Amino acid sequence: MNSKGGNAMTKKLRFKMYKAGKLWVTAGVALAALGMSAMLGQNVQAATTAVVAPSNKVSTPVTKTATIVQGTFKAPVYDAVDGQVTGKYLAEGTDWKVYQDNTDAFGTTWYNLGGNQWIKGTGVIVDAIPDTYKSSTRVGFVSGAASLTVYTAPGVAGQKTGQILWPASSWHISASVITSDKQLWYRVGTNQWVKANGMVLGTIQSAKGTATVTYIPGYSIVVWGKADGTENTGLKLPNGTSWLVYGKATVGNHVYYQLDTNQWVDGAYVKFQARH
């Protein structure tokens, strides 16, 4: 199961954590204020003149907070509903005060951030608890017996994508956010979010060395296909044998060592010797 951070999931909904012993890297997200007048937490002033919506639009005064959750791209700011891009962009994970809702003739939702500053509702949610959006480089393991439903966005704006995460599968978590109902969400791909229930977080890192099996004389240990000790590969390693290690996964307080692609052994039954 091969994955790159932020890309959409494949139809098989699986990916490799490593390739040739190399760990994927996720770019960090810069949370920049960009000099806009409506950044949450600032002393925001309303526009000096009222914002008048076009006659074929429906505009409603509101007081909300918009959180940018779309990832991959920054959200452009427009000078009006269906207007022109101003050249300003809102970074992923930032929170903004909203003064008006507006639905255009095509059914697209727009949010006014003050004055002539508008953003599309795509990739934006208004039910996130402010300051709870976090970028992540963790790995999520579906630990329960049930699969997890994938949504286009967290919270009330999210729609089912038709995809699911199967039990015992592992996923790169690029971001998390908490919605107003206290639900924690994880992003597993572009516009692909799941509820955190039923998923355990872990970390995977590169590790070079040798693992020697320290089990029971005359017996062998199982080689697992997943970095959380699930999916038996059918392979076994005899007690006393030594194997090269290329990676290390930590799930809770438990450690697994990677011997090859989709080949992991339980750290409780091996002695690891690092090589430099």
From TrEMBL:
InterPro entries: KxYKxGKxW, SlpA_C_lactobacillus. Residues 1-46 form the signal peptide. The keyword Signal applies. It comes from the Bacteria. Residues 72-120 form the S-layer protein C-terminal domain. Keywords: Signal. It holds the Pfam family KxYKxGKxW_sig. The keyword Signal applies. This is S-layer protein C-terminal domain-containing protein. It comes from Lacticaseibacillus saniviri JCM 17471 = DSM 24301.
